[in-house]
Design a protein that fits this description.
By secondary structure, this protein is of the alpha/beta class. Helix content is 47%, strand content 14%. It has helices spanning 2-15, 35-52, 60-69, 82-89, 137-149, 168-182, 194-208, 210-215, 233-242, 265-286, 313-329, 347-363, 383-402, 408-411, 413-418, 429-434, 450-455, 461-474, 483-499; strands at residues 23-24, 54-56, 72-74, 77-79, 95-98, 107-110, 113-116, 124-127, 131-134, 188-189, 220-225, 230-231, 248-256, 292-295, 297-301, 308-309, 333-335, 367-368, 374-375, 380-382. The strands form four sheets. Strands 1, 7, 10, 11, 13, 14, 15, 16, 17 and 18 form a ten-stranded mixed beta sheet that branches. The protein has a four-stranded mixed beta sheet with strand order 3-4-2-12. Strands 9-8-20-19 form a four-stranded mixed beta sheet.
Length: 505
């Protein structure tokens, strides 16, 4: 009996959640702010943009663009009427499609839609067998494959871990090539230097063709403002590159409350809105209608040590608030994800990640970077954590895109005619019609009796996740790609690597 139960569970786990390129949200948004709170926060946003201003530093070109557009520029600080900034932001699309190499995997970002992507930017990786170590290209490729294979992850991101065995000056080429060849899901491009952004767009053009790119978003850059109230040339040059060629930009103020913003959550939320909206306006000046995603990454901190904290009530509330404000501004939203300060997949990681991700879900974040794999405050990508988080994302997806079914079939009146008082519904017709889809079954959870669990090796969830991702890699098959496109990509990467000197910082 135990063996049959495990076999059935394994079949269900292999099936995973229903394949869907992104979530089409049916659940209503959670809007906790009342009209008075909205008025106060938006007045603060307007005050920051009009009276305090945002510095655009180390880019004289950006300051000249602002001057010609009619903003007030003093030194490197830009101030502009709030109604004008909001009008510029209104040029950005409320929702847009990012095309994937496989059209069936294209995602719609904005409106009622939600897209989950893995962790971004961690220099370290961790797994049960190899422990904690610097990420390398082999780790990176494994993570790209796992993200491609998991149905609850809709988007590849870019830097799932930093491949530290490749020079900094060249690793973006290898990362992009891996995403383009090993997966056919949409992904991000590089942003750390303008030339790397241009490489990203040039490589995307090889895959999609110039005509498709001129009319569609196929790649986006993800950048952070340098909070508080500072935009550096990494951001503006990424906008020249991506928006200048009709592609998307995600702009995220990273505010550690008490350091890069006030300790009060409302003030930090207003600061994030002001910073992002000023950059959105700048992007629309560069190219009206350029796809733009307004980001929020607000974290609380330990005022004893200065360490960031995750899953706490203040950033949870910031997600709800900025979701409501972003919808009022008509802009797609990016929020955090399954965030934790824990070093391993333990109870701390579970409750911090669950609280952070649940608020991100309810807040209506349209694009969720760091939805899976985040450990150690973002310093480490966990292989087991990636699979554990993605398992939970499947449950969130069912809540979001199905809500509560109140159809005639769901009300099950025929079942009451069949089952006598005191009886059971296990074998009735309604159950037999719906048993395969009635409940989400988490592939990594073990809900069997203790004897069955012990017979299977008494594995905890970390061990089950390790077994799951190693089995996934064994069954990986690369998505098809035209030979001519692959050859052109490889030639581009080889040429650019020859042109670029090795640089390790």
């Amino acid at each position: 009996m135990a063996r049959r139960a495990r076999a059935a569970r394994d079949r269900r786990a292999a099936a995973g959640v229903p394949a869907s390129p992104y979530i089409r949200r049916a659940l209503p948004f959670f809007d906790p702010l009342d009209p008075d709170q909205i008025e106060k926060i938006e007045a603060q946003v307007d005050w920051l943009m009009q009276d305090v201003g945002i510095a655009f530093r180390d880019d004289p070109k950006a300051l000249e663009i602002w001057r010609k557009a009619g903003a007030r520029v003093e030194g490197d600080v830009v101030r502009a009427p709030a109604d004008w900034i909001r009008a510029e932001c209104a040029r950005a699309p409320r929702q847009f499609t990012q095309l994937a190499r496989n059209p069936a995997r294209s995602v719609v970002i904005g409106g009622p839609n939600q897209v989950f992507a893995p962790i971004y930017g961690a220099p370290f990786v961790r797994d049960l067998q190899g422990g904690r170590r610097y990420g390398n290209m082999a780790d990176f490729e494994k993570l790209v494959k796992l993200t491609y294979m998991h149905p609850a992850l809709h988007h590849g991101g870019l830097v799932i871990t930093e491949p530290t065995d490749v020079p900094v000056s060249k690793r973006h080429l290898d990362m992009l090539h891996s995403h383009m060849v090993l997966s056919d899901k949409p992904h991000l491009g590089a942003i750390t230097e303008r030339s790397r952004a241009e490489d990203s767009i040039d490589m995307a053009e090889i895959v999609f063709g110039r005509d498709v790119m001129e009319a569609n978003c196929v790649i986006m850059g993800n950048v952070n403002t340098n909070s508080p109230l500072l935009v550096d040339k990494v951001v503006t040059e990424a906008i020249y590159a991506y928006c200048g060629r009709g592609q998307g930009i995600v702009v995220v103020p990273f505010i550690l409350s008490g350091a890069m913003g006030p300790v009060s959550t409302a003030a930090s939320v207003a600061q994030a809105m002001a910073e992002a909206m000023m950059v959105c306006a700048f992007a629309q000046i560069i190219r009206p209608g350029a796809p733009f995603v307004l980001g929020n990454f607000l974290s609380s901190m330990s005022l004893k040590s200065g360490a960031p904290t995750f899953g706490m009530p203040e950033p949870v509330m910031s997600n709800y608030a900025i979701g409501q404000l972003a919808r009022r501004a008509g802009l797609p939203l990016r929020c955090g994800g399954s965030l934790t300060a824990s070093k391993i997949e333990d109870a701390q990681a579970a409750y911090e990640s669950a609280d952070a991700m649940h608020s991100t879900m309810l807040a209506g974040a349209n694009f969720v970077l760091h939805a899976a794999g985040w450990l150690e405050g973002g310093l480490c990508t966990g292989f087991e954590k990636l699979i554990m988080d993605a398992d939970r994302l499947g449950g969130y997806q069912k809540v979001l895109d199905q809500g509560l079914d109140c159809s005639g079939e769901a009300m099950a009146r025929d079942a009451y005619a069949e089952v006598a008082p005191g009886g059971h519904f296990l074998g009735c017709g309604h159950t037999m019609r719906n048993y395969q889809s009635a409940f989400y079954e988490a592939g990594l959870s073990d809900s069997e009796n203790v004897e069955s669990w012990e017979e299977g090796g008494a594995l905890d969830m970390r061990a089950r996740a390790h077994r799951k991702w190693t089995a996934m890699l064994e069954s990986y098959e690369a998505p098809p790609m035209e030979a001519a496109i692959r050859e052109e990509l490889e030639a581009y990467v080889a040429r650019r690597k020859q042109e670029l000197p090795d640089a390790w910082y």
